[in-house]
Design a protein that fits this description.
This protein is α+β, with helices and mostly antiparallel strands. It has helices spanning 14-31, 38-57, 60-70, 73-86, 151-158, and strands at residues 33-37, 95-103, 110-116, 128-129, 136-137. A hairpin with a 6-residue loop joins strand 2 (95-103) and strand 3 (110-116). Helix 1 (14-31) packs across helix 2 (38-57). The longest helix is centred in the N-terminal third of the chain and has 20 residues, at 38-57. The chain is extended.
Length: 187
């Protein structure tokens, strides 16, 4: 019987599951929003909420525990400065799980967005690099970026210009078959 056993296993052993939770919690704390499956989001929510609670305490022991659970200095710094200030008046519930309508291709798993509550608006517009200068190009008014669908092919063939003026032609009047090779045998 499975009485009193808490948490999902996700078909992984303990060390793999713990490292997955650590990596995904670090991603949530740094990016403040990730897309994952609904089940993983609900499990990671528990980890992230405990880490934010440690950040709100602010003492040295909490900082050491947070580093032990994240193993990332930048996450600990953000946790004890930015996030602790943001959630000092909130008692709990620092994360939100929003189910997405689209399912994942391949296995049709239910997807969700796991995000921190009260996070600043995140600008997720893709910026395409300009090929000449390397500067990012802002999207146009329609929301589409101006792209050349054949740019990769042009780059490939522009650098491989042949010096002989094109493909070599067959020599006129010569038979293309070569005569069988004669092997020299010592007789």
């Amino acid at each position: 019987m499975n009485h009193g056993v808490d948490g999902r296993k996700f078909g992984r052993n303990t060390s793999h599951r713990k490292s997955m939770f650590k990596n995904m919690a670090n991603a949530v704390l740094t990016q403040e929003q990730i897309v994952t499956t609904v089940e993983k989001a609900k499990e990671i929510r528990r980890v992230v909420d405990k880490l934010v609670t440690l950040g709100k305490k602010g003492d040295l022991n909490s900082r050491r525990l947070a580093f032990d659970r994240t193993r990332d200095d930048s996450v600990v710094v953000k946790l004890f400065s930015t996030l602790a200030e943001r959630y000092k008046a909130r008692v709990g519930g620092y994360t939100r799980v929003i189910k997405l309508a689209d399912r994942r291709r391949g296995d049709a798993a239910e997807m969700a967005v796991l995000e921190l509550v009260d996070h600043p608006v995140i600008d997720r517009k893709k910026k395409v690099k300009n090929t000449e200068s390397g500067d990012p190009v802002e999207p146009t008014a329609e929301g589409k970026t101006p792209t050349d669908p054949f740019s990769k092919m042009r780059k490939l063939f522009s650098s491989k210009k042949k010096e002989g003026g094109g493909t070599p032609r067959k020599a006129a009047g010569k038979n293309q078959r070569s005569a069988p090779r004669k092997t020299s045998s010592s007789a």
